[in-house]
Amino acid sequence: MPLAITEDHRALAEVAAAMVAGRAGTAGARRVLLDRDKTDRWWSTDGLWKEMVSTGWLGLHLDERFDGQGYGLPELTIVLEQLGRAAVGGPFLPTVAVSAVIAEVGTDEQRERWLPRLVSGDVVAGIGTNSDVAVRDSTVSAAAVPALAEAAADLFLLPSGDDLVLVQAGDGVSIRTIDSVDQLLTPVIVASLDSVHVAEVFPGAAGVAVRILRLLAAAEAVGGLGACTEMATAYAAGREQFGRPIGSFQAIKHHCANMLVDTELATAATWDAARAVGAEAELAATMAAGHALTAYQRVSLQNVQVHGGIGYTWEHDAHLYIRRATVLQAFAGDQDALRDKVIALQLDGVRRRQSVDLPEGAEQYRQAALDFRSELEASDPVEHQRIWARSGYLQPHWPAPYGRAADSVEQLIIEDALDGLDKPSLGLGEWVVPTLLQHGSKEQVDRLIWPSLEGELRWCQLFSEPGAGSDAAAVATKATRVADGWVVSGQKVWTSDAVNCQRGLATVRTDPKVRKHKGITAMIIDLSDPAVRIRPLTEITGETLFNEVFFDDVFVPDRDVVGAVNDGWSVAMAAFGNERVSIGGGSVTMTAEALIDLLERHRPGDSGVAREVGALLIESYTLATLNLRQAARAVFDAGPGIEGNIAKLFGAEHAQRVAELALRIADRAILVGEEPEVVHDYLFSRCLTIAGGTSEIVRNLIAERILGLPRDPAPK
């Protein structure tokens, strides 16, 4: 999904995409790459550059007082994303980076002097962040200073310790163009600065330049990531080998699914970083670059792998993105530096507070929620679950009278207003009960919903069976028709929380003669029936969350059939869609943030392990922003997103990586009984990539249902 969520941002993205496409897209980039013996200012005669200048893109993020458009960095990142999709070259990125820095740290006089000239396109700039120049008596002298710039740049913004200096090209400035991996976004060497007059000094601003360049580079990377993922997916869907599209092979599906995961995480992190302000902005930009730039390199290389030999040719677009990813990584994405910065900021107490910008009028819901809070806090705790249930605040998104039919905005307000209250959990009922609301009869709803909300009935899900694995349609438990109902016999397994439940929603086979998805019926099982046997399963942690459930000719009355007979697959799919809690329950206690304290206790001063912690902190941030974008998309009616599917896959694997690193950090402490939660999480986390569909199956689903790759051929 693109960076743009709001209607205005989507419109801007469409205009930018159309402008790039109208100027030949990547064909223009290839033409420049193949014909590099042009003049130093080749980009100034390019039609796209002229159009970018005339439409005001160079000043999109700048105040109107300085001839800008009056927007900000979020809008600039949207344009850069579209430029990145076509690997557009030229001085746009360094020029807008320099103007953004001056806009933030310059005085009004400095802004008035430089920003209008940068907006006009008559003056283009370069930026350096990877070396230091020394200033003495208002002049600067240095040798071999790398900068992201065109050879004919008019200005260079360079670091000098914690400060920035602005140097004009001219006498005493010698520029050498590098035979770079990317001749479209050209790094140059300021080969020498010989007592060059410093045009401006921006005290203490070096960190600002680094932050802004990281953010803007991440935005361009998002565009490249999207282009590579779409390119690889389209090729996989159309290219045939061994008599079928290569996209039907699981290995290719997993490659493409991984590319999409990387793209979506980079998009979410960059979107959030563009909104951040203050100290949080530095952390967010570092996190965004930490994922996006590394992911861009990884995905651009994977794109070639999916294409095979054709992707290795000069004429193909694939290498354009490898080249761009390499340069962006080198200038803005040094992984050790990024991870060190993340750790340093975390130790300084900097945290990114996640929030969604709510539309006007959203606060109308807050007072009602606060009134409910006051009522609850003044009541007898014995009555709390009933009060929660009857108020509609227990499940506010459910339809009235069982919920409040709250839209996304009201849900966010309620969550904030009631934060900290001990809210009752319905367990797996949080997705089983809404399935009854969707597919159950009026009699079932009247009989079962209120007792479920008030805690009298607790539900489990009886879908998984021995030998079925992730195939929820492989139902062998059978139901035989008898007078006024059915007799159910068979076995379910991996049933979470069954020993604590009074009811279960089961899938049973009612017609073995039709295809397996067609002969399934959903039924409510009374777990107190003597013909039901529940046997807890001991997990590798020693806990007994999962259960086997045996049905020894259990009678199920007709009134407990949910939906139509033989239409149970649609009921099961609704239950999967209503999932709101972690399948298998339980949780890991060790988060990426908690690794910092663990590191201080057991591996202080170990910079190598600290960087591994930094990498997981970046992962944690991208996952949080992915979930935040899902909420923001709902608030702005931007249509359904794919964040939930990505979060399920990435979140489980991230939790495992955290648990594995925690064990390594704790090291010998676990041998003497210290850090027991580390050992528990290490063992427990193994279930996260299995329960509710293995990571391999989830990758297949992402590839097929989101990317549209062909399904595996049906077995003959």
Structural class: alpha+beta
What amount of the residues lies in strands? 5-15%
Q: Ends: how far apart? A: 37 Å
Please estimate the helix content.
40-55%
Overall CATH class of the largest domain: Mainly Alpha
Report on the biggest sheet: 7 strands, mixed
Query: pLDDT below 50 for ≥5 consecutive residues: which ranges?
Result: 580-586
What is the tally of helical segments? 22
Shape: elongated
Please tell me the CATH architecture of the largest domain by its name: Orthogonal Bundle
Give a quick rundown of the structure:
Helices cover 47% and strands 15% of the residues. It is an alpha+beta fold.
Description:
- It contains 22 helices and 17 strands.
- The protein is α+β, with helices and mostly antiparallel strands.
- It has 4 domains: 7-204, Butyryl-Coa Dehydrogenase, subunit A, domain 1; 362-425, no CATH class; 442-577, Butyryl-CoA Dehydrogenase, subunit A, domain 2; 594-706, Butyryl-CoA Dehydrogenase, subunit A, domain 3.
- β4 (155-160) and β5 form a beta hairpin.
- α5 (92-105) packs antiparallel against α6 and α19 (607-635) runs antiparallel to α20 (643-666).
- The longest helix is centred in the N-terminal third of the chain and has 33 residues, at 206-238.
- It is elongated.
- The two termini are 37 Å apart.
